[in-house]
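Protocol step 4 of 6: structure prediction from sequence.
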Amino acid sequence: MKLSNLFFLLATILLGMKPTSAPSMNNPTLPTELTCSALLAKSQLPLGALPYNEITTDSFQPALESAFRECYQRLDLLREESATPTFTNTIEAIEAIDLPLEQAWLVFENYTSLNADPKLDELSQTFTPERKRLSNAIFMDSHLFSRVSAIYDQRDSLGLNTEQTALLVRTYTEFLRNGAKLSDSEKKRVAEIDERLAFLGEKFRANVTAEVNAYELVLKDPAQVVGVPSNALAAAKALAAKKGYKDSWVFTLQFPSYQPLITFANDRGVRETIWRAFNTKASSGEYDNRMNSLEIAKLNAERAQILGYNTHADFIAEDRMAKNSENVRVFLKRLATAYLPAAKKDIEELREFAGHDLQPWDVAYYSEKLREARYAYSEDALREYFPLDQVMRGALFAAEKRYGIVFVERTDLPKWHEDVLVYEVREPDEKGVAKTLALFYLDPYPRESKRQGAWMSELQRARYEDGKWVIPHVLNAGNFTPPVTNEDGTRTPALLSLDEVYTVFHELGHGLHGMLTRVGYRSLSGANTAWDAVELPSQINENWVIHKDVLPVYAKHYKTGLPLPETEADKVRRAQNFQAGLMGLRQVSFGMLDYAWFGSDLEVLSKLQSADDVTVWEEKIMNPYRVIPVPAGNVMSPSFSHIFGGGYSAGYYSYKWADVLAADAFSVFEKNGVFDSETSMRFRKAILEAGRSLEPDVLYRQFKGGDPDPDALLRKEGLLK
């Protein structure tokens, strides 16, 4: 998942405003002339939709330059403000100045992931550091901090409501965490580090994308693709034809291409080839990220040290549900202790089933074979019951039934690619009249210009503006198995694996977090909450994938329309915890790797000097959690975009942390009924609507009525009684 940073920019002067949670954003004292473009002008389309059909790569540079100039003008005015500091002229000002930039930036940020090209990459490496430079100009400013501090010191006597109090605390905290109390020399160094980190993060992600796009495995011998599902073969054949290869199949490192090959190909040599390529991405050659990984870790450690923390992990955990890094370490070790013996047992069962020693490229293949033998169903056969349009229908149905909302497809609104689907999200008001809550964009299929993975992001943040509610525009992006045109000219729809179905529901959970928010301040709305809580809405939404009341809605054969037989559905449910130890250990090991990088101090990291040191370092960290030896030189860090280029540094544990929250929260639904309206609305109000208007532990207790049970996940996975 990809989120914009909290408080991502600046401030405007707001005069004469009453302290409410629905502030007016008018400011007649400031310059209003902006370069007119699709990115800066107020939308004239229905529901505030942007004219994506008019936006090109060339649109961004002039729009961003104009918006940045506007922000710096407003900053100068704010610095000159001499009136007594108030919540209105200071705190709401710092929240609101960046509206023109935000619109352009959110679209730009999404385009770099959705439609990247060399020019966009170049612009990103220019403007991302500029964005951070502007942010630092605000949050390191001593004059502004003195005004914020004056308000913060009297916060208990100002009569602020919940959202206003949260905004005040977040603003004050943001100044502290950006170094407002540092000396001038320290501020200068932190600013240098921030700009360099912004550049390196973009470079890191661009290298991974370039490596993925550059790789192709051309297979010509039909024996090499025996076992591979027909839809994957058709896609590989179509790609080969597009690239000019005759009588061939082309496989790539895009997951819909990689996954069926590593899982189903009988040819062990082919599996080894694609596994090695996938698991050594960006670790050598032109796109080698190893030194970028090291520099990112060192710079974060240095920054934390300047700010008064031992490690970057200490700095991060302080602002999360976890509260401190030691709690995270204990959490990860506890899970590792539970998962490691279970994973070893899973591997031993797999080894006995295969009848020989296993290599890493054997695990997915024999796991699928063992699953088929034990539960008598095939992942490949299931695909025929999971066309993407039906899966989306099921995911939307589950959300509609719980939260009383309706998704209506809009074919009249512009989009950036023909594959994109657009939905208007509605709900009846107290008079039964439909009101619009959000716009929802779905971009489901891989493209060469699109980064890997699946994620949720914002195209427009919810807010109050001029006393009116501005609806959020939310994106779910994926790289799901695309439809294919067969050799006979027929077309097979996008048929998803069960894992991909879970991903659809997962990302929609994030989407609901953004779509249903009712917080009027952008920096606190939707998914802008503590990152070890942000995965709760996504993780819990996965629980409806195979529920008996949901599966029949969408699991229908793409040819016959017949539903998945209940006997087969039951097999899938019984297999739910298949290799739970192995899968759990994998996620925990990623968290351990993350914490090794960002939970180490500068002295430890300084001992690493070369790219080879990075490889050795990772092997030392990961080997205790590997139940199958991995070839020397296999290194994950250079392609671990989550932590080095995606905002999850010292935060990857959040996935398992949220797994615990989700398992515990879903137990309430199980007790009361998975579509119980009272439970659903309590979850909606406490979690989905509330953003960070209160801290996530407080909000969770409002839903659950108590603290989360730390054993809930292990019980759900069958590892605890």
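Step 5 (inspection) to follow. The longest strand covers residues 434-443.
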